[in-house]
Amino acid sequence: MTAAKVIILMGVCGVGKTTVGRKLAAAVGGSFEEGDAFHPPANVAKMAGGQPLDDGDRAPWLAAMAAGIGQWLGRERPTVLACSALKAAYRDVLAGGRAGVAFVHLTGEPDLIARRMAARTDHYMPPTLLPSQLAILEAPDDALTVAIDRGPDELAADIRRRLGL
Ligand SMILES: Nc1ncnc2c1ncn2[C@@H]1O[C@H](COP(=O)(O)OP(=O)(O)OP(=O)(O)O)[C@@H](O)[C@H]1O
Ligand SMILES: O=C(O)[C@H](O)[C@@H](O)[C@H](O)[C@H](O)CO
């Protein structure tokens, strides 16, 4: 099996992709990439205004990250991308059949995620959008799935060990 070079931490908003992803990237001596930074400004404005994105909104965002992944696969050290990747079709765009791309699905009880989102003060994503994300989530059956009811350091260490990084 090809060792993962791009690890995509996926899951609904507020599940901890950024927090855990930064720690995982640091632990493996790799790079961290923030999926939120690839959105066109109109997407961010839409979400900040309380409207969920649709497939058309997400298309340019996914294409931009897929292009990035093509470059990151050439890096010497692994890259960790925080990206919701909620639907199977989105994951197909991101991976593009390329070896070396691995998905890790962060999962948790909706109440726990909602509480963490409510406590977060530095993010455009309103907690009211969590149900829409849970509604469209297509959980992968071939990804490493990790429950978020532990601290971020422990989660990052567990993911690192289970991916053999
Ligand atoms: N394992 C954890 N234990 C406790 N708090 C956590 C944990 N993971 C994340 N948090 C906190 O929960 C909030 C949401 O985490 P974070 O912003 O990393 O999620 P995200 O999945 O990247 O969100 P989004 O998709 O909306 O960008 C943050 O305030 C973060 O500090
Ligand atoms: O697919 C989507 O609707 C978006 O990617 C959102 O998930 C946000 O970018 C992100 O999670 C910020 O909270």
Order of helices and strands: EHEHHEHEHHEH
Form type: globular
- Poorly predicted runs are none
Described by strand count, sense and barrel closure, the largest sheet is:
5 strands, parallel
Biggest sheet strand order reads 2-3-1-4-5
Instruction: Give the bound compounds.
Output: adenosine-5'-triphosphate, D-gluconic acid
Give the class from helix and strand content and strand pairing: alpha/beta
Work out the helix count: 7
CATH topology: Rossmann fold
Q: How large a portion of the residues is in β-strands, by DSSP E?
A: 5-15%
**Count of strand segments:** 5
Radius of gyration: 15 Å
Catalytic activity: D-gluconate + ATP = 6-phospho-D-gluconate + ADP + H(+)
Enzyme class: transferase
Protein name: Gluconokinase
Pathway: Carbohydrate acid metabolism
Features:
alpha/beta, Rossmann fold, 45% helix, binds adenosine-5'-triphosphate, binds D-gluconic acid
